[in-house]
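Hey team,

Filing this mostly as a record. A colleague (T.K.) asked me to run one chain through the structure pipeline before their review meeting, and I want the input and output archived in the tracker in case anyone asks later how it was produced. No errors, nothing strange. Just documentation.

Input sequence:
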Amino acid sequence: MPTIHIDEAVCKGCGLCAHACPRHILSLDSGRLNAKGYHPARLVQPDQCVACAACAAMCPDTAITVEK
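Output structure:
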């Protein structure tokens, strides 16, 4: 099963990854803040991930890594 790793310490909560995901399985975690004060991205439905890496390609801070 593909795995997405999100480095929450680097994530600035821009939401570009969520918009880039063709399956719409990423979102910003509105219930948490990272150390920088941003709502980090989170994978909502990991079983639906196809490891297309659109999220990682879109992330301006390279906070996302995709393992196939």
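Quick notes for T.K.: The CA atoms of residues 23 and 48 lie 7 Å apart. The first strand starts at residue 3 and ends at 6.
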